[in-house]
Amino acid sequence: MAEAPSQRPIVVLVRPQLGENIGKAARAMRNFGLTEMRLVAPRDGWPNPDAGPSASGADDVLQAAEVYDTTAEAVADCAHIYATTVRKRGVTKPVVTPEQAAQSIRTDAGRSAILFGPERSGLETADVALARAILTVPIDPEFGSLNLAQAVILCAYEWSKGTDLKQPTKEDMLPPAPQEELEGLVSHLEGMLEPKGYFFPEDRAEATRLTLRNVLTKPGWNHLEVRTLRGVLSFLSKPPRKTTKR
After folding, report:
1. 95 forms bridges with which residues in the sheet?
2. pLDDT tens digits along 90-112
């Protein structure tokens, strides 16, 4: 069952600096089914012409983005607020991973928001103080730096695990070829190998045929792939083409 819009977390970018990064964050959101973005005092104003190209088609997220003067105003209607940071900044709050936060967001009543700080400095203590919990990831202590889009995509991906989003590539894949077509491929190749003495010695011929069949049936070829392979075999069985010297 698809998640209701009210169950999806709101992504709140607090004082974002570059329009390009806002666009990349929108793209990361849209990849995993999140559509509601709120901006708190974006440095270069809003709309920002640099955001669109970086969003790579997530224009609906950018067009619907709401702008607020303060973080408190941006999360006023939210019951559950998570502040993304690798530092507690003197605030004592529960610390959760993106996975734990996602689980709570899917089950807790009321709207949820995830706060992401400015690219250069991250969230300030006053922003973190508004949150119910600190959201962080295990990260190399000597290099605890994620860019804005990376942070957004980590959280969005964990939330998406509990939804009915599907692998895009699977929708485009052709179904496996029927057994009849695979048998044709096997017979075609065996027919080319037999006169060449491939199945020798005779006492190993059956085992060799079985191994060959396993190789050809294991990948799960679709009908187009089987036809392509048979075309290759047919081409290889023809005499070499004569080339005309100039």
Report:
1. 134
2. 668 899 999 999 999 988 889 99
* Tens digits of residue pLDDT in 158-179: 999 877 665 555 445 677 888 8
Cis geometry, peptide bond prior to residue 138 (ω within 30 degrees of 0): no
- HSE (CB half, 13 Å, CA atoms) of 41? 11
Q: How many residues does the structure list for the chain?
A: 246
- Distance, in Å, from the CA atom of 242 to the CA atom of 231, rounded to the nearest integer, reads 20
Indicate whether this model's pTM tops 0.85: no
Asked if residue 30 lies in contact with residue 58, where contact means CB atoms within 8 angstroms, the answer is yes
Cα–Cα dist 122/26, whole Å: 18
d(CA 156, CA 29): 6
Q: Could you count the other beta carbons within 10 Å of the beta carbon of residue 91? A: 17
The whole-angstrom separation of Cα 158 and Cα 155 is 5
Q: How confident is the model at residue 45, as a pLDDT?
A: 95
Return the CATH class of domain 5-166. alpha beta
**Domains of the chain, residue spans:** 5-166, 174-237
Amino acid occupying residue 193: L
